[in-house]
Design goal:
This protein is mainly beta. The chain contains 5 helices and 13 strands. Strands 1, 2, 3, 4, 5, 6, 7, 8, 9, 10, 11, 12 and 13 form a 13-stranded mixed β-sheet that branches.
Length: 264
């Protein structure tokens, strides 16, 4: 990392915000796939107000596949048949003027028409309604996705992986499977801020916060990776991912969007 990158505070975003919770979600059976990308290539795809966050001199793009459950606003219980569905997001890592390292989403696919509509209208995120499935048998897991709307139909893929033991190679003083601050795994998965261009009276950069315990990570071996998400995002990447890891998941608290100019 450059000197400027080393000065970024990656730990404070993991602290629980003091503002009111907007909602709750549980993310489970999470597969993280990541590819190294040229920082210059990535910067060309980002809003001018955000800067590429790099690790090992590279920008990174990730595909994260998982199940959502218990999705609800703070004032409502979960609704059977509505509050649970598969999701896939394509993301990269950014910061704003050397602060608040977070996520920029290129796309989010959900098998929920309501979830996709609310994600676009209420959160300014590029959600798509897709036909999706997650199937797990023993240590093997399979994700499928085919986009329906909006945008180009058929974007998606089939990903299969074999889940292994708790992730190794970390500091012995850290709980098994949890990423050590400063490691590549921590850079890729421990992200608690998202950015979105959201239109109220005008298009403006907003940020949102989430809070959860650190991810419990497991080793993972990729068996199949056929996908068109990256090409759809404008990235010419056809090789296997450079990093793969799995997590059984976390329960999350979701906090409201705030304009970046006034957010604390």
């Amino acid at each position: 990392m450059s000197v400027a990158q080393a000065d970024i505070d990656w730990l404070s975003p993991a602290e629980r915000p003091t503002s009111r919770v907007a909602g709750y979600q549980r993310w489970t059976e999470m597969l993280f796939l990541h590819w190294r990308i040229s920082p210059a290539e990535m910067a060309a795809l980002l809003p001018e107000s955000l800067s590429v966050d790099t690790c090992d001199g590279c920008a990174w793009v990730g595909i994260v596949l998982f199940r959502m459950s218990g999705v609800r606003p703070w004032w409502s219980p979960s609704i059977p048949g509505v509050s649970s569905f598969p999701e896939t997001n394509v993301r990269t890592y950014v910061h704003h003027r050397g602060r608040d390292p977070g996520i920029w989403f290129f796309s989010l696919d959900a098998q929920s028409s309501l979830g996709a509509k609310l994600g676009r209208l209420r959160w300014g995120l590029p959600y798509h309604r897709s036909t999706m499935a997650v199937r797990r048998r023993g240590s093997q897991i399979r994700y499928t996705c085919e986009r329906q709307w909006p945008g180009r139909m058929g974007v998606g893929g089939t990903i299969e992986a074999e889940i292994g033991d708790p992730y190794s190679g970390f500091d012995s003083h850290v709980e098994a499977g949890r990423a050590v601050p400063g490691s590549l795994e921590h850079f890729l998965v421990e992200r608690y801020i998202l950015y979105a261009l959201y239109a109220q009276k005008r298009v403006q950069l907003f940020k949102g916060r989430v809070h959860h315990s650190p991810y419990p990570l497991r080793e993972c071996r990729l068996l199949c990776c056929e996908q068109s998400w990256l090409k759809d995002a404008g990235l010419d990447v056809e090789r296997p991912p450079d990093h793969v890891v799995f997590s059984e998941g976390v329960s999350t608290e979701i906090f409201p969007l705030q304009p970046v100019a006034t957010a604390s």
